[in-house]
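User: Good morning. I'm curious how protoporphyrin IX containing FE would be positioned relative to this chain. Could you predict the structure with it bound?
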Amino acid sequence: MATEQRATCPVRADFDPLSSVFLADPFAVLMSLPSEAPVFYAPSIDYYVVTRYPDIEAVFLDPDSYSAAAAQLPLERLVPEAAEILLAGGHKPQPSMVSLDPPAHARLRSPTVRAFTPGRVADMESRIRRTVEQLLDAVDATAPFDLVPSLAFPLPATIIFSFVGVPEQDWQPLKEWCGHRASLAWGRPKPDEQVHHARNMAAYHGYLRKLVATKATARGDDFASALLAIHDENPEALTLDEISSILYSLTFAGQETTTHLIGNAVRRLLEDPARWDSIVADPQLIPRAVLETLRFDPSVPVWRRVTKRPVTLGGVALPAGAKLFLWLAASGRDASVFPGPDRFDLNRRNASKALAFGKRIHYCVGAALAKVEAQIALEGLARRFPRLRLVAGQQLSFHANISFRGPQSLWVRPTE
Ligand code: HEM
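Assistant: Good morning! Here's the predicted structure, ligand included:
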């Protein structure tokens, strides 16, 4: 990036989204920023930070000017050993659909959308209800419990893995590989940690290739088999390798995103017990509570793009190749779109306008599934634990990455 081009853009040397201050409370950092600089350069990550709703929306709406190629780039430059392990393990520089631009993107997106039918999602509803009930059955209703391992973490993994068709004995390693993926691409791992994560990612890719090969000869009633049926129609249009890449998208995207949505929703509802009491008294408010959580405290607070050509964004001239940190969480607090943005409001009419799932060509494939999971989880909790409260005095902690955010544990009390 040319220094003179950067000079037209405010620089915030103190902005570091992986600092302990930011991880503890990104909204406090947001509030401390001057409102007249909605786009600024952050040397700590070498990204331009975009904070306002209309600017982020404009980026999502214009794939000709903004490439998705930065979406999964390791934030930290990889050491050669880690890069080689990834390459040898079949990892591509643009590893899946979310970082591909047209026309390559459509090759993966179209069959995904075809196989991800509303009917298949609706079929998952009874499974989600069953899983929520089983998980809550295992909770001791007389003592405080940690919501994350009890419900928020196991539910999305169970749902997405059974949806895709992953055999249950493989769920545990798959969960672990996904954790390595989040740390490698969205965190700031040290060189030895990078190598460790890269080895696990190679194992993850290898597993998915084997799964596709096995399913090719033993189909089931699942998403992977539905993709294989599309492959049968024209193997050139959707290769087995591409199916494996689609599974790489879903097995990851369907997990922590939703775990954190549930964790953030319960946290925000219980922060003011009157909110919890409202959804207990009127469960019809639950879908609104989910949407308001996605606006107020989204589980994917940041997504990334890179400019394809020189552009002006938020009044700032940016060169081609400028990496953009689209701060979705900040866009949810934009008062020009959401009046009284710092208030969590169950009656807000336009919470669904939040950009939490992106927009246009990369709009989240799993948005409906994630919302249904969170709604059913909240319904189950509200029914069983109408007097649920947060355990007082707990210090919440958050995994050190830029894009997946929710409490790592959340202690709640079933009764007052
Ligand atoms: C609360 C939960 C979730 C959130 C906040 C979320 C958020 C996002 C975001 C921000 C994007 C990128 C949009 C863009 O680049 O314009 C995305 C894409 C995607 N999401 Fe989600 N997601 C969630 C759950 C899920 C689930 C459950 C699945 C799978 C079942 C899923 C699958 C995908 C896929 C495949 C893409 C890539 C779409 C494409 O590139 O065309 N997501 N999601």
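The pocket of protoporphyrin IX containing FE is lined by residues 60, 68, 97-98, 109, 160, 249-250, 253-254, 257-258, 261, 298-300, 303, 356-359, 362-366, 369-370 (CB under 6 Å). The CA atoms of residues 58 and 313 lie 9 Å apart.
Let me know if you'd like a different ligand tried.
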